[in-house]
């Protein structure tokens, strides 16, 4: 059944899902038209919102470029390559490779989504070197592990509401992670994902005649020809001492941040950690920069598309569309059903605002008011927004860009499989939020 469903889904997506750039342009037009028709904004007002917000994610765009680049540089070091190669040897069959990459992706993304996105994509490439398996499903399985990120240690919404002085503290106070990330219902959802997501990916494995394999030459790292160079500048570029000096400075900062100050994981410290581990493990600047030349090729999609998403977010946030959608979805809810309807509305809003922090800023006033009016469980409602944000990432290619860049695929190659997981994981989260 799953093979048949996934085969139909893959054909549908391959035929109708455009390149992510076209997808974001269409979303921009849809958001603009909706703001005019639903919120009675003038076309010029919409264009102004869009243009003013277009560069609102510049710092985040750079962070995402560094997630890809620093993660790639670290993963391309000899030590990490050996670790991935050893781990890949555990997979002896195509089905085993699908299950293994999914489990690794789920665990890595639960720890930290930036780390998980990069590691799972690189691990998928390593598995493809080891086992002959449908490459589209392999990469889709690696990306499907991203579904757990907002219920994990780096979930932006549960971490935000657990932080002293957060912007909704006067309304809901401080909600500890014991009531969100480490709550019984959230742990049950994550454990269910850990079992069912790998199983569904394995059941979608196509027959030999329907499988698409990747050429091994496309998986190999580009060979770098090293010519003898006795220039003083070249000696600096190949100096291990210089690399170690700056690397030790980075290690000292990390020790101070993680151990002395007890700092938590965030995107900046993850990027810092990846970068300085790459500096140390590559051993010299020349090896590091050769790795950078390869890594930067995959960042083009992020650079061109993220400003458009910033513009969409501005339209959705400032026109009132997000509030209207959330209001409508929660208008017929009860205290018990509010988490479910909040989850569904958050999933829809995420298609237009694929940012956990941005989505909470837009939806939190509405869902907090609804939860207080109905007497609903506030931590559970907040986690419903978090899971809704994570859920439709299986449909929205925004977060798949780093994975696709590393794997060398297009969104249409994997989204057919992700569409099946969208329905499966939607059922898991709905049951977890309402029954436990």
Quick overview:
The protein is mainly alpha-helical and about 425 residues long. The protein is about 70% helix and about 0% strand. The relative contact order is 0.17.
Task: Describe this protein with a few key phrases.
436 residues, single chain, mainly alpha
Describe this structure in words.
The chain contains 22 helices and no strands. The chain is mainly alpha-helical. The chain has one domain (2-213, 231-435). The longest helix is centred in the C-terminal third of the chain and has 25 residues, at 411-435.
Identify low-pLDDT runs: none
Q: Report mean pLDDT, rounded to a whole number.
A: 86
User: Total number of β-strand segments?
Assistant: 0
Estimate the strand proportion: under 5%
Helical segment count = 22
- Global morphology: globular
Question: What proportion of the residues is helical, as a percent range?
Answer: over 70%
Secondary-structure-derived class: mainly alpha
Characterize the largest beta sheet: strand count, sense, and whether it forms a barrel.
none
How many domains make up the 3D coordinates? 1
Element order, helices and strands? HHHHHHHHHHHHHHHHHHHHHH
So what's the oligomer here? single chain
Cα separation of the termini = 29 Å
Q: What is Rg?
A: 22 Å
